[in-house]
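User: Continuing from earlier, I have the next pair ready.

Assistant: Great, send them over.

User: Here they are, in order.

Assistant: Folding the first of the pair now:
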Amino acid sequence: MTIAFTVILLGLAALIYPLRKNRFYLLNSALIIGAAYFIETHYFRVQNVLSYKTLLLFAVFQIVTINLTTFVAYGVDKRAAIKKQWRVAENDLHMLEFLGGWIGAWLAQKIFHHKTAKKSFQNMYRLMIVLEFAAIWLIIKLIKS
């Protein structure tokens, strides 16, 4: 399971160039791989890495960790904005939202009051949600056929 998850995450980074430079995606990947390793060594070992249960477990890990990572990324960006330091690129934030972190982004926007007034950012945020659901719909459509 750990190896399968690592291959999936590195494969995504190889296919999607901006992910290679997104340090928060790397954090997300490390969290998923660490969780998979913990589950595999302490609870059970998966026999078939391409089984429905393994893919479902990966999806759960991805949803939980990407939202935590996105929340942290917004917090880091807000802190950098206050201290007038190097900021997190908006493209990195949007990529995290597209990968499933839009709930973490929404919570961070409400809690940190960050990126809520900038209309162009909010429009792109909404577009990332629509694109994510379109991608999920397309993947499900491809799997069924």
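And the other member of the pair:
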Amino acid sequence: MMSAIHHPRRPRASPLWQIVHHAWDAFIASYEIDHRTTMGPLRQDSIHSVCAFLRRGDLAAGFTRFLCPDCGHEKLLAFTCKSRHFCPACHQRRTRQTGAWIASYLCHQVPHRQFVFTFPKMLRGIFRKRRHLLHPLLQTATECLRDAFRVRLGLPNDRIAAAAPVHTFGDYLVFYPHLHVLAADGLFDKRGRFHSMPEESSMRR
């Protein structure tokens, strides 16, 4: 049986890496004048993600050494950046890992639904410049969903089970904060018993 051959990625050959590499310094130098007014302050975690992405594939930033015990041949594999959102490869891997963890360990064996929460375009600039408000937005959305379930089921004290990541961009890469809420389709009481929403419920995804 033939052994699998590892074909390492070449992140620095990608168009995205080339564009960022050539434009990043100029972008940083002009941000305060050209972009801060509309985009708000440049966050340190954003700078860290881009800098980590630019170091992707650089052996000087760390590597794993593979050594064949039979022939003595060795191979160096540079670390990935492990950043979310900006690096397509690392983000996709973390998305799959997180999805598998939610499905295997977080979700109960009960029906689930997905809900999407958004708000008018005229209000989005508030969150673009004040990112700390996204957390209260998340809390408000899940509390509204919980209250709607309680009213529908007539259970004023039961609890909701939900996971709700915040998304700040849409398909066209414009600032578009919204929530995708994966929620158990019902409520849990204090004993852990699940009360499912009726099938004729008017709530839709």
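Worth noting for the second one:
The chain has two domains: 11-78, 108-196. Residues 115 and 204 are 8 Å apart (CA to CA).
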